[in-house]
Amino acid sequence: MDLSTLPSVVTNETLSNTFLGNVVELCIVTDDHIKTMEGLCKLGIGPWAVYTFSPETVTDQTYRGIPCEFALKVCFAKSGNMIWELMQPLWGPSIFQDFLDQCGTGFHHIAYDCNDMPWEQRIADLEQRGFEMVQSGKWQGRNSFAFFDTQDATGTTFETYVFPDDWDYPEPESWFPSRPAEGLTW
């Protein structure tokens, strides 16, 4: 390995080419979101907000650079400053179904907030570093998300997304194991 091609160390937390912000999400891809939520609830992770991402709720859907339609069951649970996410592919082409076919249920990706960098710049920076966008969409027409093929370089997939400043999660289609107490919001 030629160490002269690596970025220089700036601080104990940054390199000269650092642009990813804070880790904000860890995702498990599963073929049974209920079973996986049950297991995580046993570990004290929950409650879970359950959504269906489909062409009705996610616009601008792509898979490996080609417009496509797909549907996923997506479940979120807060844990401190981080969000746990579960994704179960329902139909259509997706990197999540690809992962299930190759690996079965397991950790699939990590998401970073990218330090308030503009969306287009995030995408360009990841692509300039040699990482291809492999899945993307826009939830509720406002929350853009994109996944990059970082598997060979890092052993996992990286995601970036942007929530508008005035973003509120929509009411989930269900809660697991039950809705939070009155007055507590997602």
TrEMBL record:
**The organism of origin for this protein:** Aliisedimentitalea scapharcae
| Protein name as annotated | VOC family protein
InterPro entries given for it? Glyas_Bleomycin-R_OHBP_Dase
**Which UniProt keywords are listed?**
Plasmid
Q: Pfam family example for this protein? A: Glyoxalase_4
Q: Which domain of life is it from?
A: Bacteria
